[in-house]
Every structure is written in structure tokens, then in C-alpha cells.
């Protein structure tokens, strides 16, 4: 994940350093697992929700089949890596741009969820 603010900061730094067309991986430092993030959201919102593990290969096959039927729930690039563990290095951005993420995944997800709740309460979702 990356916050909009962190992304904007990296873009500004790239432009200031006259390297706006280079590619950088941007993300938060030391990202937790999705399971950890979801548990955090559930706990912080006093939800009675529970996490149910799913069979990754089966879900991928189902999503592929749905896509074949014209029902795209996710892009293939999203669901094919959804159950993989990986961390993209931000070292190049840190060295070349002197950029470091300021926001962590838990805070970003909580802010997004809080915004969703506000929008829902205001009838905008």
C-alpha cells in the first residue's frame, strides 16, 4: 500500500531532481500481512466479523472462469498474486529521491475505512 501523500511527495521529489520519468516502487515501510490488517480493522471497529481462510487456487480458478463468462470481479493481475507473499523494495526511491514513506498500512487502511463509513452515513456510497 501507499498513501496518496507519500506518492505525491515522491513525484515532487522526482520532478525536483529532474528524473520524473524513472520507475520507482513506492510503499510503506515494513508492511504487515493482509490478515493482520483486516484483524486490526475488525478489532478497532469492535466488529463481530470473522476472517475465513479460502483456498487460493480455487478462488483463482473461480475468478478466471467468471472473467471468461464476462463477469470481471478483479483484474487477472490482481487475483493471480492475491495469495502470494511479496514485498517490493523501495530502496531505489529512498536512495535516488531521498524519499521515505511517512504513513503505515494500518493508518492508511483505517483512514480509508473511516472515510467509507462517513460516506455511507451521508448516503454517498
Verbal overview:
With 125 residues, the chain is mainly alpha-helical. It has helices spanning 4-16, 34-44, 56-68, 76-79, 91-97, 105-121. The protein is globular and about 45 Å long. The mean pLDDT is 90. The protein is built from six helices and no strands. It has a domain at 1-31 and 87-111.
Question: Summary?
Answer:
It is built from six helices and no strands. With 125 residues, the chain is mostly helical.
SSE order and pairing:
Elements: H1 4-16, H2 34-44, H3 56-68, H4 76-79, H5 91-97, H6 105-121
Q: For the residues shown, what is the average pLDDT? A: 90
Low-confidence stretches: none
Distance between the termini: 22 Å
Backbone shape = globular
Radius of gyration (CA) equals 18 Å
Number of alpha- plus pi-helical segments = 6
The major pleated sheet works out as: none
**H/E element string?**
HHHHHH
Strand content: under 5%
Please give the number of β-strands. 0
The helix content, as a percent range, equals 40-55%
Descriptive labels:
single chain; 125 residues; mainly alpha; 6 helices
